[in-house]
Structures are given as C-alpha cells and as structure tokens.
Specification:
Length: about 140
C-alpha cells in the first residue's frame, strides 16, 4: 500500500514539476549514473543499458544491451508490461531495489527535484513524440 501511495504521489507531482526542471542540474545529477549508463549520439551500453529513447521503451529491452546482463527481476517486470515514462522512471530511480526487488541497479536519486531535473535532462535523448505517448498511456 505504501508503494502504491508513493507512486500515486509521484504521478501527481512529477508531471507538472518537469516544466520547472533545470537541464544543467539534471546533467549534474546524471554524473552519478555515468559509471553505468551513457546518453547521446555516440552513447554505448556499459555496465547498464544506454538511456537514449528510454521513454516508451519496455523495461529490460534496450536492443544493444545483452539480455543476460538484465536482472531476472527487471525481465519479469518487462513481461508484466512495465514501460518507462515519467512516473515509472521517477519511482524506479528514487529507490530501485524497493521498486523492483532483485534489480541490479543500486544508485538512488532520493530528492524529488533531482529526479525531476534528471528526467528533463534524459528526455533530450528521447523523441518528443515517444515521451508524450509514454506519459499519456
């Protein structure tokens, strides 16, 4: 019940907050992620999948990332229909191991404003149509 309440709160807060996001601060927050992830034109998968075109993508489905590197928990979430959008990404990065028990991702972005800024930064690397569609489904 607590997770459902937290997710509902994220849905209500994250959408409007994205409009007030700071891309430079989001890029700074992304430095925590760089050890495992890349974004941008020349990005490649590292320890974790690349994050280009993340919005609207099913969990554990980045085509250039080896499937054996995804946790069983994340693959299970893909089979259950988890698709990345503002709400699911925000809830996941707030506390990955709580959101998906058994995930390999350990880095948390606890502060809501940091998550909002990070999402805005990452959105630059997804098609705007995909972002809009993912957030309206």
């Amino acid at each position: 019940m607590k997770l459902a309440t937290s997710l509902l709160l994220s849905i209500c807060l994250v959408g409007p907050a994205i409009a007030e996001a700071d891309l430079k601060k989001g890029e700074k927050v992304f430095k925590k992620c760089k050890a495992c992830h890349m974004v941008g034109e020349k990005a490649k998968s590292k320890t974790g999948p690349l994050l280009n075109d993340l919005w609207g993508r099913a969990a554990a489905s980045e085509e250039n990332f080896k499937q054996k590197k995804y946790s069983k928990a994340l693959k299970r979430k893909r089979e259950e229909g988890l698709v990345w959008n503002d709400e699911t990404i925000s809830a996941f990065i707030e506390n990955p191991k709580k959101y998906i028990k058994g995930t390999k991702m350990a880095i948390k972005v606890k502060k809501e404003k940091d998550r909002v800024n990070l999402l805005a930064y990452l959105k630059q690397f997804s098609a705007s149509e995909a972002v809009e569609k993912a957030n309206t489904q």
